[in-house]
Design goal:
It is flat and about 55 Å long. Helices cover 79% and strands 0% of the residues. The chain has seven helices and no strands. The two termini are 28 Å apart.
Amino acid sequence: MKNGFSIAWKTAAAALVSYSLVAGFMAPVPRLFILNETIRNLYFHVPMWFTMIALMGVSLGHSIASLRTPGTAALESDRKARLSAEVALVFAALGLLTGMIWARFTWGAYWTNDPKLNGTAVAVLIYLAYFVLRSSVEDPEKRARLAGTYNIFAFVLMLVFIGILPRMTDSLHPGNGGNPAFGSYDLDNGMRAVFYPAVLGWIGIGLWIVELRDRLARLT
């Protein structure tokens, strides 16, 4: 039963991503001012961030579990927390890359002094420090405790820098700094039919990658 469910959600994730990739390039999109065809990047850029946040949440859950359980179980949870954070940072890099490309064609520069961009950079640095902390402690149990505690604060700070502060200041990003979100002025249901499957599919792919990396870690 468990294997059947595992195969089902992985197949669904692959199918949703495949669908979103094809529809993302081929399906019609509304011709909005300035955005024009670049609005297709919504199907690729935003799902990367949703996946990053989801995987950071998974990492947080494993870190909390490592603090609540002793011995071998704590080390296993700590390993899963680390692997989830590593894969999350890969999606963060993809989110930054697709965002920079989008910014170049809509704002005229790869990087602007935007609070969400700067907050994202700070959040990434916070998680890079998580790995620096891990590498500086040799004792596995002590490392699990320190990393687990740090991960809790890192997750909260990430939400503050990418989700709260940009909404309190002027920002070029939709839905921040008084700008309307895409959903408030884009009434094209065709985009929603591609965007939401893309988010779910990429989150599934991210979880799948974490699972594969965990299997590999247990074999080595």
